[in-house]
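Progress narrative, work stream C.
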Amino acid sequence: MKLWLVRHAQTDAAPGLCYGATDVCAPAEATLAVAEAVVPRLPAGVALAHSPLRRCAELAQAIGMLRPDLALRAEPRLAEMDFGAWEGRPWSAIARAEFDAWTGNFAEGIPGGHGESTARFMQRTGAAFDEWRAAGQDAVWVTHAGVMRAVQLLRRGVRRVDDVAQWPSEPIDYGACQLIEYG
């Protein structure tokens, strides 16, 4: 089975801004460029699930316009992690003590006071991953870097990340398309 993971285009958010669950947009021309680059890599008739956040939903729609044979559906479990009160703030403006408290208890810590713990994020993403595996069919996910990193861990059987050093840290470019083969 194959799972294509596609990251949304670069957003119009200011560089260095924390915007996990914040519904920021990607410029239409950047979104179309990503869609045009990704479409030739996708097989006919595959199901395409996407994060409901606009930066992914608009990319999924652009892909769907170019490839009407693909079945599109919004999937809330593919949304980016919620960083609570940190959302919309520059990462550099987040107090070091708050950030260290979260990373010091990486699995269960709550970013931004009321955000989503990494354990909960992994459970949510893991449920979508398990559903994909159980379906036994190729699929495309239009999603976010955090979800793509979570899938890297899930593919290796990692369901919980207690130490921040375990979290994948390699950059994932905007518009990146990663192929995961499973089974």
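Work stream C, second folded protein:
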Amino acid sequence: MKYFNYLEKERLERIFYKQPQEFDKKTDKDILKYALGAFLYIPANKYEQIYKSVVNQEKEAKPLAICLEDAISEFGEREAIENLKLVLDDLSKQVFCKLEKLPLIFIRVKNKEQLKKIKDILIKNKDFITGIIIPKADSELLEDFISILDNFNLNNLYIIPIIESSKFIYKEIKETQFQKMYYSILNHKDKILGIRIGLTDVLGMYSIRRKREFCIYDNLIATSFIQDVINYLNREELDVPISAGVSELFNMDDEKIKNLYIKEIELDKFHGFVGKTVIHPKQVEIVQALSSITYEDYMDAQDIIKNYNSQIGVKKSSSGDKMNEYKPHYKWAKKIMSLAYIYGVLNKGVDYNELIKSKK
């Protein structure tokens, strides 16, 4: 995969100071964990949508999550599993062997019983599947999934837990649950590629749904939950990126919705999130565009890393309007350099809007 692969060479050179680099499921985890970007969810029973999304990677690279959970009705599991088997079989015969840039493909599994039902599918397609997504994850479920995959001899599959259940919301129990999750992730962090949060489920517990007029950070329930996730799980010793929550509002032709979505992504980044789950292709280009690194941030990150062990501790930034403090800004700088490898660095004076314009 390579982000912004739809751009012609001339546009790439005009937009990027450093161009995005290729990656795949075999890329070193320290880089790959930052590469999930706009993570598109597709119901497992949508054969054509899955097939086209894989084939169209040459036009627009994006990781795919094939969903066997919320996107499938209570009575549609058998059909969805059969369709998953069929589409992966067809892709392996017709596409996987020919496509130069395979997408990162994840399977979102409803529960451990369902994981066992798709054992043969996973084993057969282990070379094409990057990992498993665990909805409503807690420490016990995470341990169970890892044990099952180990028994299947599928140690090469990454795991992405989604934090979205009441255990991590209700005040009287959440501290214990977060502590347990912290230690489970710490013990298995080599297998865990990322952490996701389920804001739709969290709001649903309180009969709340997003509104067009508000950013998710305007909601007290959501911000309290986000604060806890960051506080407990965005730790240096875990070193696992956390992805921002999804929005069901996808009409990016509506300027108000689009601008609010952009504001939310900028706040996601400011709070330390990396990437964002998306449910519609119209959201993809915006999330990917805002994942690119500005020239100013890259130059600052480069300066901080270069001078970290120098005799000085602070220096004026490349823009000349702020200070680079080498010790407190060092972790930020390292993350910026990893993101720059995946999403590229914009030329001086260029912003993310150029990437969105170039798509049209």
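The chain has a mean pLDDT of 91. No further action is required on this item.
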